[in-house]
Specification:
alpha/beta; Rossmann fold; 2 domains; seven-stranded parallel beta sheet; five-stranded parallel beta sheet; 14 strands
Length: 355
């Protein structure tokens, strides 16, 4: 079990779930850790609200579906009252995926799947991931990030963008749903083709593509094998498959690969970025966004060494400054900028004006 203490402070944890088994499991799990104090458990948001009036938590685990008030409604109230790191607890179904993605857009830092409960051993198998995600959320920048991003599409003349031979690659993890939405909603329809790796299970990826497609002027879909990355198109790596790009006759195409996790991730950002590095050249732009760990850093470095253009999200605007920090520290980042600046940099890249 993960027990490494990340700081000397104790994070006050509130557990909100209508399942007594899940509440007991989480309470017992975190009560053993030196950097957490479980200040209470609640079967519904009304009980949770009473606890929070007396002792406001540093971090909350929140069930998606509960009686009397669902997790989305309660999350909105939390973010409106006092933005606090929240990790959603959700089952991995398509319906629940859409609700969980909505929670991430509202301001939840992360989520973990609610396991099918057959015995305590099943819960024990996922405890390391749960601890990692909750601990990571407790130290996130959610209080800085809960604000309304501009939704104005950046205006650019169509004949100023030479997009047919350019491609943009994006890697993201924790906090990525919010970051990707805030970028894509501002991009003009003639933006060069974009390929995305976001750490997420298959059912969530389908919902992510569907929801993003409703918010942006670009076409968004889950990537198929051997499809051209054309202007105005965003493809997202399917869950449980790696995504690469290849170049033929001056155009970029997708390549979907089965395989094992790379650096614990499937899909992995490094797989996409390393494929781009093998092609090389200033027609490729790599962008690394918020996320814990270091997936994508090595690949972005190789991209920069092979003459690709690279951008990293800065610490101030990252919910989790892990992946972009590692890339920056390695010298992989050519431009480190805020999330709100990245759409402008993408347009500059398309226009051939990225300095």
């Amino acid at each position: 079990m993960t027990t490494t203490q990340t700081s000397t402070r104790k994070y006050k944890l509130l557990i909100v779930d209508d399942s007594i088994v899940i509440r007991t499991f989480l309470k017992d799990l975190f009560a053993k850790l030196p950097d957490f104090e479980v200040i209470g458990t609640a079967a519904n948001p009304y009980t949770a609200r009473d606890i929070m009036k007396q002792n406001w938590p540093d971090i909350i685990t929140l069930d998606v579906e509960m009686p009397r008030m669902n997790g989305i409604e309660f999350l909105k109230k939390i973010m409106a009252t006092r933005p606090t790191p929240v990790v959603m607890v959700s089952t991995l179904t398509k319906d629940r995926a859409a609700i969980t993605l909505e929670a991430l857009e509202i301001g939840a830092v992360d989520y973990f799947p609610k396991p099918e409960i057959t015995d305590w051993n099943v819960l024990g198998e996922v405890q390391d991931e749960i601890v990692r995600k909750v601990r990571n959320a407790a130290t996130s920048n959610i209080r800085k990030r809960v604000h309304k991003e501009s939704q104005t599409i950046i205006q650019t003349a169509a004949d100023h963008i030479q997009t047919s031979n350019k491609v943009i690659l994006v890697g993201s993890s924790t906090g990525g749903v919010q970051a990707l939405n805030s970028i894509f909603i501002r991009l003009p329809g003639n933006t060069p083709g974009i390929a995305v790796v976001q750490h997420m299970p298959p059912t969530f990826i389908e919902s992510l593509a569907e929801q993003m497609g409703k918010k942006t002027s670009l076409a968004v879909k889950v990537a198929d094998d051997n499809e051209p990355l054309l202007p105005g198109k965003i493809v997202i790596a399917p869950g449980n498959h790696h995504l690469e790009i290849v170049k033929r006759s001056g155009l970029f195409y997708t390549k979907i690969l089965e395989g094992k996790p790379v650096g614990y991730h499937l899909p992995a950002v490094n797989v996409l970025f390393l494929a781009a590095a093998r092609i090389g050249g200033p027609e490729i732009l790599g962008i690394i966004l918020t996320g814990m760990g270091e997936d994508g850093a090595q690949g972005l470095l190789q991209m920069r060494l092979n003459k690709c253009r690279t951008i990293g999200q800065d610490e101030e605007s990252s919910i989790v400054y892990g992946m972009p920090k590692r890339a920056f520290d390695m010298g992989a980042v050519e431009h480190q900028v805020s999330l709100s600046t990245i759409p402008h940099k993408i347009v500059e890249f398309g226009e051939g004006k990225l300095k």
